[in-house]
Design brief:
The protein is an alpha/beta fold. The chain has helices spanning 3-12, 26-35, 51-60, 73-79, 88-93, 107-119, 129-146, 157-170, 196-200, 214-221, 224-237, 256-259, 305-313, 339-348, 391-397, 432-443, and strands spanning 17-22, 41-47, 83-85, 99-102, 123-126, 150-152, 174-182, 274-279, 296-301, 324-329, 360-366, 375-377, 384-390, 406-410, 425-426.
Length: 449
């Protein structure tokens, strides 16, 4: 890679990559800690609904008060400082800003801001994987039509897995499975923002809960985030969801080639070419040793017997038969690594992962028996979790995307474990997110084969 050299060239020419960031949550704050230190980048503006919180986050990652006291975007551009605002559109509309980082976490907001940025000729780094899972293929197509980049966020697991897949295919290997590790147990699907603490306290020592969003954490615990991320990977690589979604098999980091291969060859997958997430917990609740809980992996095969022998010689974690091999990355550093996406978009005009098909969806699935008249509370809440589902099945059955299962009223009773349908809720057809999702379904009505 030579992105750092290209950034140095921009810095020497006094033309740093000018960035507007929307959202100062955990992911966004991690990037804030690094962009200050990155030669050739200038965070011109930071937009957040709570500017005082945004300022607090910047100071908390060692920005000086002088660095963030720009009185306007114009002042920031002249002085090299950063302007804090609650007006995201002011960043998007500014002609000097090249890259918009969308890090709000809200799918509806993400879609709206992304489309505005594209229409204003900005590259978009979509940290908001919830928005990508809901309508990413359409957003990426719109960006390409405007000659700008729509990119998944490097440092987050979907972009890293997309890179694994690209590596394997570029080297002539066939991708069998790709995904990540997580902490999973079947009972976690019923986890709520209240009960999630009982799970978190078993393996995390959280001193100050006031800085933790329980709904966000619960999305990771109840299986939703895994479904969202694997959907993003499928739609950006052409891999597929398995018929019943993720199985979450327990696996050490050294067992992936034996476990994440087709059932016909002794593994757990229904077929090759799919995503899967492995668990750091056995079903009896015991910890899996040497697990991949924060990492990513890929399992691949080759028609070349010679190459497979080389995989053994070079310690590429082959399965017991020698037919499959695996590589893994032990961790990911989310926002600390986001600069790779920003630089790639601005300097190479290349995304670090971008959806081009609609192979996978994330469907709202009942955590418990739900009653007619109840209001759904979306990702990480009390009512539903997100189940990865093949896109063609989702379209055929009329399933409700998880990203739209928020603040909508149920029109019928739903059994625990049942996937909800559009017809089960009173949605607003005029809502921007609904409209864009419907357009995406019409454009990408058939999954990529």
């Amino acid at each position: 890679m030579n992105l750092s050299f290209k950034l140095q060239e921009r810095a020497a020419a006094n033309k740093p990559v000018r960035i507007g960031q929307v959202g100062a949550g955990k992911f966004g704050t991690m990037f804030l800690s690094q962009v200050r230190l990155t030669t050739g980048m200038h965070l011109v503006g930071l937009a957040d609904l709570m500017p005082a919180r945004a300022k607090e986050r910047l100071l908390g990652v060692q920005w000086s008060p002088e660095q963030i006291n720009a009185t306007s975007l114009g002042d920031a551009l002249k002085t090299g400082k950063t302007h804090i605002t609650d007006n995201a559109m002011s960043l998007i509309e500014n002609p000097e800003i090249e890259v918009i980082i969308e890090a709000t976490g809200d799918p509806g907001t993400g879609i709206k801001l992304c489309q505005a940025a594209i229409n204003h000729g900005k590259h978009v780094v979509m940290v908001n994987v919830e928005a990508d899972a809901l309508a990413g293929p359409l957003l990426a197509r719109q960006a390409r039509e405007k000659g700008v980049v729509y990119s998944l966020a490097w440092g987050d697991q979907p972009a890293l897995v997309c890179d694994h897949v690209d590596w394997a295919r570029t080297c002539g290997f066939k991708v069998v499975a790709a995904g990540k590790g997580t902490r999973y147990h079947p009972t976690y699907h019923q986890s709520t923002p209240e009960s999630v603490w009982d799970i978190l306290n078993t393996y995390l020592k959280i001193q100050d809960k006031s800085h933790i969003n329980p709904k966000m954490f619960n999305s990771f615990v109840d299986g939703t985030k895994s479904g969202i991320e694997m959907t993003a990977i499928c739609n950006a690589t052409g891999l597929h969801s398995q018929s019943d979604g993720l199985g979450f098999p327990a696996a050490t980091r050294f067992e992936h080639a034996d476990i994440c291969k087709p059932k016909a060859d002794g593994g757990v997958l229904e077929k090759a070419g799919v995503t899967e997430v492995t668990s750091s917990l056995y079903r009896d609740g015991k910890d899996v040793p040497h697990n991949l809980v924060m990492g990513t992996y890929i399992v691949f095969e080759s028609d070349s017997d010679y190459a497979l022998k080389c995989c053994v010689e070079y310690n590429l974690l082959p399965d017991k038969t020698g037919k499959y091999a695996a590589l893994y990355r032990p961790t990911h550093m989310i926002g600390l690594e986001l600069g790779v996406s920003v630089a790639s978009a601005a300097l190479r005009k290349e995304p670090t992962g971008s959806p081009f098909c609609f192979n996978s969806d994330v469907v709202a699935t009942a955590k418990r028996t739900l009653r007619k008249g109840e209001m759904l509370d979306g990702e990480g809440g009390f009512c539903v979790w997100g189940k990865q589902t093949p896109a063609d099945v989702s379209l055929k059955e009329g399933y409700l995307p998880l990203g739209l299962a928020h603040n909508v009223k149920l029109k019928s009773d739903i059994k625990e474990g049942q996937r909800l349908k559009w017809s089960d809720v009173a949605y607003d057809a005029a809502d921007d997110a609904v409209r864009v999702r419907k357009e995406m379904e019409a454009v990408f009505g058939r999954p990529n084969t």
